[in-house]
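Protein modeling request. Please complete all fields; requests missing the sequence field cannot be processed.
Requester role: graduate student
Desired output: 3D structure, C-alpha cell encoding
Chains: 1
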Amino acid sequence: MKTDDFDYELPSGLIAQHPAQPRDACRLMVMDRASGQIDHRAFGDILEYLDHGDVVVLNETRVLPARLKGAKDETGGAVEVLLLRHRYGETWECLVKPGRRIKARARIIFGAGEITGLVVDVLEESGARLIQFHTPAGTFLDAVHRIGEVPLPPYITQPLRDPSEYQTVYAAEEHSVAAPTAGLHFTEELLEAAQMAGVHLATVELDVGLDTFRPVAVDDPAEHPIHSEHYRVPARAADAINDAKARGNRVICVGTTSVRAVESAFNEETGLVEASEGSTDLYILPGFRFGVADAIITNFHVPRSTLLMMVSAFAGRDLIMRAYDLAREERYRFLSFGDAMLIL
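Delivered output (344 residues):
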C-alpha cells in the first residue's frame, strides 16, 4: 500500500465554497459495499436508508473562533495565531505565522490589548508553540469570541455568509478548530423526523484538529504521524450503541470523527463500546477491523488524506476510488461544504 494509491486529480471548480441551502438539499451518493451499487439521491432522502432502532452517532463538538490576529510587542510585526488545543490554565498549543521568527519569551498583543500572549515553549516535534495568554478584562474565551475568527480550511477561499454555516445544528461545547463537516448536511427538521421514525441519536465528542485534513506526505502511509485528539463517549451514547448491536440494528456514524471516537472506545475483548474519555491516536488504514461502525455518512475528501484512507478501509480502496471517479464525472461538490456519501 502506497500513498499514491489514494491520489486523484481534484479540479478546483469542484471544491464547494458554500454549503447547500437548505443544508439537506445537497446531493447524496449512496454506496452499497456488498453489491458495489451506487445510487444518486438528495441528502434529504437519507431517512429512506435508516431503520427503526438504528443509532446515528453525531460528533457534537463546536468550532472555536480560534484564529487570532496580533502583533509582536517589540517590533509591531503582524502575527497570526491558531489555537490548536488547551493544555492547562490559560496556556494553549498554537500554530503561529510567521513561525520561524517567533521564539520562546516573545510577547504578542491581540486586538487593542484585549489579550496578550507569552510564548513559553517551542515544541520541536511539531513546530507549534505553547502560549500563555492573559486577558486584562473578562475571561480568555470571552475575548476570543470578540476578536477571533473561525479558521476555515485553506481550500475555502470565499468568506462565510454567516458564521453558523461552519457549525452543525447540534454543536454543543467549543473544542475544535475545524468542523465535523459530514454533520453540516443535517437540519433540525431532518433530525426530528429521524427520531419520529424511531431512529436513535447518540452524541459523542472528538475535538477536530488541523492534522485531520493534512495530506500524507510520505510514500508509506504507515509512516505518517497521527497526532492525538481528545474524545469523549458518554455512558448514554455507549449504552445506545451496545443496545442497538444487541437488537441487530445498525450504528451509522456521521463523519470520520465519529468513527474515530466510537472505535477508540470499543473493547475488542468484550465486544462493547465503553463510556470513556481521553486522547486517541487511532489511525485507521485498510486492513483495520471495525468493531462499531456499520455505515458511515461522510463527505468527499482531500486526495492523499488519512480521511480518504479511512473510508477506503471501510468500503475497499477500489470501490471508493471508482466512486470518486464517478463523483467527478457527475460534478459532485467536494470537501467541507460539498456533497455527501452514505456508505452502507
